[in-house]
Amino acid sequence: MGKVRINYVDLKVFAHATEDINKVMTSINTLIPPHIRESIKPKVTTVKGHYGNEITIIDIRIPKKKAEEVLKKIICSLSNTDRSILLATLESRVDKRTSHLYLRISKQEACLGKVRLMDGSDVIKLIVGFNKLASIEDLRTYLEDLSKEC
User: Fold this and answer.
1) Which of 56, 73, 110, 136 is most buried per CB count within 10 Å?
2) Phi, psi (degrees; rounded to nearest 5) at 64
3) CA distance 150 to 148
């Protein structure tokens, strides 16, 4: 895993006025190991939606030292099928210019303690920032190596 170095993991989720904010936080906590949760301070912003409805935006940045552990928890929590989908669609999930990997996790499933990839809108958005990705294949190898540690 020497070629790929992770800088941070950003998590972002929208909670609509009809949602229980505690359940939304539970869904985020599904992705973060318990010992790291205590040291993370979410940034919470409330905005008005198009129709005047209240939307709470929760942003969390997990720094370098803890980011790999969070990514490993997420990768290990995915089903074998979702891990295969992630690796098969890796190229479309990476912005080579910014060295970012983009993932969307089902907010509803996470609330139930499950981690599933989802391409819809009711999701927890993840941006994994890396220090200059050399290639998609290096990232693929890195993610496969993380999977072997599960």
Assistant:
1) 110
2) -40, -50
3) 6
DSSP 8-state assignment for residue 32:
S
The residues spanned by each domain of the chain are 6-148
Q: Are 82 and 67 in contact (CB under 8 A)?
A: no
Q: How far apart are CA 129 and CA 135, in angstroms?
A: 14
3-state secondary structure of 111: helix
Query: How confident is the model over 86-115, as pLDDT tens digits?
Result: 999 999 999 999 999 999 999 999 999 999
Helix (H, G, I), strand (E, B) or coil at 113: coil
The pTM (predicted TM-score) of the whole model is 0.90
**pLDDT tens digits, 72-88:** 999 999 999 999 999 99
Nearest-Å Rg of the Cα atoms of the chain is: 15
